[in-house]
């Protein structure tokens, strides 16, 4: 088969665009890692691209970050919310998706319309805060889990995935005397591992990156999640707890590298988890997006 010049030109042009997109995606990660190992004084005076540590490479910034007790408190709180929240959210979403994907459920379409309605219209920040406060959830880690138990978009994906499972499996289970709990846990969920993995990833990443609602509902610093601690370091420029024993000039210099080291410490765990779920990711999204 003869390949035309226009097709070859298209391939070259397409490859250049993809390489540019890869560079734009990967470069920020390279920059942050290189900056975290750089010398503080050299980094402050450096301009332009950064592909390797400037000055003498060192791990002083990481030592300062790991000596900060707020980082470990943030990790503890985030891991608690991540473990409890992801498990609870996936379970609640599975229960809702199972009910809405069954045949002959009364008002199923009306319920789905109401769920979709919440994706476009909401009560607002103040009513939401007052509702959480009325339930006595403020200043507790439960405020980051219970109000967000079910995401409408994730519910729709999981419902569509459950509905794609052949109804004959459910019928045969009912003939053998199985009830809904048995059908859900013995048939539906085992056959839905890809979409469950996607839900774990969606909810897990949302919890890991979440800081806004924590800043709204939490005032006790001992309950701050990791991302709220990170926000204080990056935006509020608060590195005092990690540079208390430094000179004024050294404080300014190492503060820059501390910011990047904090980003690395808080980002690496979620990046390490993704490869284990990647094989389920595309398959799970497609199963939940296309019926049949």
CATH A-level architecture: Orthogonal Bundle
Distance between the termini: 36 Å
Strand fraction? under 5%
Low-confidence segments, given as residue ranges, are none
- Under CATH, the topology can be stated as MetI-like fold
CATH top level is Mainly Alpha
User: What is the averaged pLDDT score?
Assistant: 83
Q: How many alpha or pi helices? A: 13
Helix percent reads over 70%
- Radius of gyration, Cα only, in angstroms? 24 Å
The CATH homology group name:
MetI-like
The computed structural class is: mainly alpha
When the domains are counted, the total is 1
What gross morphology would you assign?
globular
Major sheet size, sense and barrel closure: none
User: What's the SSE pattern?
Assistant: HHHHHHHHHHHHH
Number of strands: 0
Structure notes:
It is a single chain. The chain has 292 residues and is mainly alpha-helical. The protein has a single domain (61-289), classed as MetI-like (MetI-like fold, Orthogonal Bundle). The protein has 13 helices and no strands. The protein has helices at residues 5-36, 40-45, 60-66, 69-101, 108-120, 125-134, 152-163, 167-175, 180-188, 193-209, 212-217, 226-234, 248-289. Helix 1 (5-36) packs across helix 13, helix 4 (69-101) packs across helix 7 (152-163) and helix 7 (152-163) runs antiparallel to helix 10 (193-209). The protein is globular, with a radius of gyration of 24 Å.
């Amino acid at each position: 088969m003869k390949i035309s010049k226009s097709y070859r030109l298209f391939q070259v042009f397409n490859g250049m665009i993809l390489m540019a997109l890869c560079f734009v995606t990967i470069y920020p990660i390279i920059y942050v890692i290189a900056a975290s190992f750089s010398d503080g004084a050299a980094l402050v005076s450096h301009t332009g691209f950064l592909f390797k540590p400037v000055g003498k490479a060192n791990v002083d910034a990481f030592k300062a970050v790991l000596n900060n007790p707020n980082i470990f408190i943030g990790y503890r709180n985030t891991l608690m919310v991540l473990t409890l929240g992801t498990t609870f959210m996936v379970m609640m979403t599975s229960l809702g998706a199972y009910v809405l994907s069954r045949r002959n459920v009364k008002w199923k379409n009306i319920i789905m319309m109401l769920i979709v309605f919440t994706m476009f219209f909401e009560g607002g920040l103040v009513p939401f805060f007052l509702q959480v406060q009325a339930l006595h959830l403020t200043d507790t880690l439960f405020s980051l889990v219970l109000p967000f138990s079910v995401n409408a978009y994730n519910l729709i994906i999981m419902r569509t995935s459950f509905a794609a499972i052949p109804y004959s499996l459910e019928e045969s289970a009912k003939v053998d005397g199985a009830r809904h709990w048995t059908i859900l846990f013995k048939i539906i969920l085992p056959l839905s591992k890809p979409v469950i993995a996607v839900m774990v990833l969606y909810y897990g990443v949302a919890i890991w990156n979440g800081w806004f609602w924590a800043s709204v509902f939490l005032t006790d610093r001992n309950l701050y999640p990791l991302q709220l601690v990170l926000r204080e370091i990056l935006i509020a420029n608060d590195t005092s707890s990690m540079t208390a024993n430094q000179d004024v000039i050294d404080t300014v210099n190492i503060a820059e590298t501390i910011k990047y080291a904090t980003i690395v410490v808080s980002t690496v765990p979620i990046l390490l988890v993704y490869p284990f779920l990647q094989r389920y990711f595309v398959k799970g999204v497609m199963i939940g997006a296309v019926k049949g």
